[in-house]
Amino acid sequence: MDLLEALEDRAEFARRHIGPNDAEIAAMLKVVGAESLEALAAKTVPAAIAGKALDALPPPATEAEAIAELRALAAENRSDIKPLLGTGYHGTHTPPVILRNVLENPGWYTAYTPYQAEIAQGRLEALVNFQTMVTDLTGLPVANASLLDEGTAVAEAMAIAHAATRGKSDVILGADDLHPQSRAVLASRAAPLGLQVRFAAVAEIAAVVAAQKPFALVLQYPGTTGEVRDIAPEIAAVQAVGGLAIVAADPLSLCLLTPPGEMGADVVVGSTQRFGVPMGYGGPHAAYMAVKDGLKRLMPGRLVGVSIDAAGAPAMRLALQTREQHIRREKATSNICTAQVLLAVMASMYAVWHGPEGLKRIASRVNLQARLLAGAAARTGLTLRHQAFFDTIAVECGDRAPALIAAALKRGFNLARLEGGAVGISLDETVTRTDLDALAEVFAEVGGTPAPLGEAAGGIPDALARRTPFLTADVFNSHHAEHAMLRYLKRLEDKDVALNRSMIPLGSCTMKLNATAEMIPITFPGFANIHPFVPTDQAQGYLTLVRRLAGWLCDITGFAAVSLQPNAGSQGEYAGLLAIRAWHLSRGDAHRDICLIPSSAHGTNPASAVMAGMKVVVVGCDRDGNVDLDDLRAKAEQHAASLAALMVTYPSTHGVYEEAIQEICALIHAKGGKVYMDGANMNAQVGLTSPARIGADVCHLNLHKTFCIPHGGGGPGVGPIGVTAELAPFLPSHPLVAEAGPATSDTVISAAPFGSAAILPISYAYIRMMGAEGLRRATQVAILNANYIAKRLDGHFPVLYKGARGMVAHECILDCRGFQQGGGVLVEDIAKRLQDYGFHAPTMSWPVTGTLMVEPTESEPKHELDRFIEAMVAIRAEIRAVERGEADRADNPLKHAPHTAAEVMADAWPHAYSREQAAFPLPYVRAHKYWPPVKRVDNVHGDRNLICTCGPLEEYAQAHHLQAAE
Predict the structure, then answer these.
(1) How far is 171 from 212, CA to CA, in rounded Å?
(2) What SUPFAM superfamilies does the record tag this protein with (predicted)?
(3) Widest Cα–Cα separation across the chain
């Protein structure tokens, strides 16, 4: 046995994850001037913070072992028990064509946020489909490209309403049949902002609105116990006192119910989970938001709009980007900087696959199931709490409720225990006729009377039945045959650049390998089909996974405790700041509300600080990109009595390890504040140092960066936080699952107790297969790859910032500002020209305007780095030709990039440079040509003529040409 074990290659996965082999690493080390990876790390990481043993991590597992281990954990979750618990989570069938070609397809899950619109037209079209689906179902004109979950979407709607009413009131009222997790998130979000959340019984809403004059009213439609009622009078009541009406609505119900927009709602939110996205113990799922036209500029998150490209053809891109946190910073009304793109794509494709008639058929079948069960319950003498319902019935059982729930569990069903002795049963598309017969037997057993399925009871009142059409666009009525759907998905995928095509060298975004072995477990039924509110003895596999993963992250960060609840990096920031705020409050220091933030910080940092009830004071940076110590000392001293926290990123957003980081942390601690570390650059810390060793008190981790959860075209993400022992009592908790957090906390960040639990197996598998030494080596190679690129390009593009010993961290900033004066070439021209070479551009104009921030990650092999370097050198030669007058300042490949196949193959070629230079600038491009589907997109035109839903794009282009002719 020992001989067999000796032959097992425990480092195999790490070698496959890390791109360069030993010979390539040796060659690259020679270029950067280091003898070994250890020597390179010593030249790069300040000696004072170096050292992290990762003692608590298990030895590395093979791919087969890790998958088997996760399969065993999944088997400990009771996916054989069908959860009919409702509260916004439902069983669903993911159409196999979507499962295989979207969720399991790296062409969709490894793409980045569609900032470079020209090479993201496929995802953008899918998101326009999503927005159209939402506007059609809700009856409102504008929808965004998704939010994190329904609970946080309700909270985001609250922020919109408060901003729109300009603070005339600080009271928001909710109906008491709002989902409990939404109530909890709403209360947590309101408290730091000084807003008061109150709830009223449904029968008393109109009177309470008139008396309290809230700035918003939040309604659930249908209610959490299933009631369907006419909410138009309640909407009118809040609007009569100057408030906004927010409705949280189940989208499947809207196939049969009058849309809230037609009832006058100002904002409608909800979750599209039941549109083909597994429950996954609570996430990730795509929430939605739709608003009246006058509120569109207050809407958080991403918004995709239709515009035109340089040739006048229709093209899509992210719209209204002035809402971005990197621009608005502390003036932002939301810290949401992403969307749940992969899940929104799945939900939109579910609607494309089924079409309007298919969705109506599913909704009608679910409603009929509920009506048949209602009839069976009535025949046993049980009564219904509500006679009008869509998919959920509330059966009044009195003291027989425990017996009914136990009888259902014995037959394989989870039912909901409601207040007042009622039992809730929520039906979904996975329920079969056999299931209904078994549930009828439960009624018969408890009621003592046979209750065969027969006559239906209750349902949707005719006055509330939907009468308007929806999903009338061609895309929802064209792809119902599998060949048609398969080809549609492939056509969209081929328009985009993802990691399965080439390196995506985005600084601060860490687009690294998402290994197939890491992805396989997320579709195991034991992970996919678990409701977040099942009894915890039915989710032991998830709880074990959470405990182990949190423990490993504690070891990696050096912290005492970790919460996995935040379901995005922005939410991790927010949760960390709330923990600091709660700690100060526990000590009677409510006056400590100043948050110092360097000017180089991610834009979500100041937005999160404001949401946490803090006041932002900006600290300057010096000429080397480091925090200006003199300015920090002065401002820390000036605000010493009220200092709450410092937010700092390490390595810095300028791509260097600041030598003074421990001094910075000590300075804040001396003034009574806490240090929050933004973990965006954790990929340069793992195994070499840690936030706790550096001196931070709290740090959020982007699992979608350092720990291999794929970006999914802009989401999902996970943003857990690690904290010191004294902050651990203030980590997030959850009202429905005690195991989610400490009993000492009432802070709820996400709707689900463990956030996006379904994708935690990805990071679990990554850490499990890499082991301590693999993780350390990954960090070292990430630093090597960045320094290799910096060294190779330094003579062509100046590297803006370097550390004390001339090295960069895991990313480098290329200064492109001088090209504008010399040849009129902008950094955008370089970014668009890279598309002709088959590459996604590095991060553009952030953190310094006119620069490119490059992060290659450890996953890229040397030949891919060399290919990128060759492309950048060739582009520099094209710039030089303009600077020397050898190429026209206006008519050159940079200014007209990217070049489409239609343009290059057209009969006419109006440019002074050749078609070959345009399309095939280097020999390797010819063999692996990617054709951008559109030319450069006109963002200004799109914002002036905002169109965010499906329509005949040819008509849009024709209208533009007519407008131009006039």
Answers:
(1) 8
(2) PLP-dependent transferases
(3) 94
The token pair at 606 is 């100041």
**Helical (H) or strand (E) element with 447:** helix 433-447
User: Which whole-number Å values give the CA distances from 839 to 758, 867, 880, in the listed order?
Assistant: 31, 10, 21
pLDDT digits (tens, 9 = 90+) for 915-927: 999 999 999 999 8
Of all helices (H) and strands (E), which one includes residue 51? none
Task: Please say whether the beta carbons of 253 and 221 come within 8 A.
Answer: yes
Could you tell me what percent of the chain has a pLDDT over 90? 89
Q: pLDDT band at residue 682, thresholds of 50, 70 and 90?
A: very high
- Which CA distances in Å does 248 have to 157, 173, 174, 333? 10, 14, 11, 20
pLDDT at 320 > cutoff 90: no
Query: What average pLDDT does this structure show over 447-460?
Result: 88
Q: Retrieve residue 116's tokens.
A: 């470079």
Determine the Cα–Cα distance for residues 546 and 540; give it in Å rounded to an integer: 10
Residue 43's pLDDT is 96
Mutual orientation of helices 862-883 and 827-836 as an angle, nearest 10°? 130
Task: Look at residue 50 and give its three-state secondary structure.
Answer: coil
The strand ranges marked E within 655-745 are 674-679, 698-701, 721-723
As beta bridge partners, residue 417 has 423
> Is 441 a residue whose pLDDT tops 90?
yes
Of the CA atoms within 13 Å of residue 481, those in its CB half-sphere come to 4
Q: Give me the residue spans of the domains in the chain.
A: 97-352+485-501, 355-464, 559-755, 779-900
Q: Give the C-alpha separation, 395 to 389, whole Å.
A: 12
Domain 97-352+485-501 has CATH 2.102.10.10: no
Q: What is the pLDDT of residue 649?
A: 94
The pTM of the full predicted model, rounded to 2 decimals, is 0.96
* Integer CA distances (angstroms), 235 to 217, 264, 464, in order: 8, 7, 15
Q: What is the DSSP string of 135-177?
A: HHHHT-SEE-S-BS-HHHHHHHHHHHHHHHTTTS--EEEEETT
Name the 3-class secondary structure at 362: helix
Euclidean distance between CA atoms 354 and 46, whole angstroms:
57
CATH number of 559-755: 3.40.640.10
Mean pLDDT calculated for residue range 482-490: 98
Helix or strand holding residue 863 (H, E): helix 862-883
- Rounded Cα distance between 89 and 534, Å, is 11
Report for 420-434, 595-609, 936-950: range of highest mean pLDDT: 420-434
- Is domain 355-464 annotated with CATH 2.60.40.1220? no
Kindly state the tokens that stand for 775. 């993780």
* CA geometry: angle 126, 127, 133, nearest 5 deg: 95
Q: Would you call 246 helix, strand, or coil by DSSP? A: strand
Rg (CA), the chain: 28
The C-alpha atoms of residue 146 and residue 152 are separated, in whole angstroms, by: 11
Indicate if 355-464 has the same CATH topology as 97-352+485-501: no
Return the axis-axis angle of helices 760-793 and 22-32, rounded to nearest 10°.
40
**CATH 3.30.70.1530 corresponds to the domain 779-900:** no
Q: What is the mean pLDDT of the chain?
A: 94
pLDDT tens for 862-882 read 999 999 999 999 999 999 999
Q: DSSP string spanning 796-842?
A: TS-B----TTS---S-EEEE-THHHHHH---HHHHHHHHHHTT----
The residue behind tokens 């190679």 is 781
Instruction: Give the tens place of pLDDT for each residue, 785-816.
Output: 999 999 999 999 999 999 989 999 999 999 99
Q: Average pLDDT for residues 15-19, to the nearest whole number? A: 97
* Cβ(384)–Cβ(406) below 8 Å: no
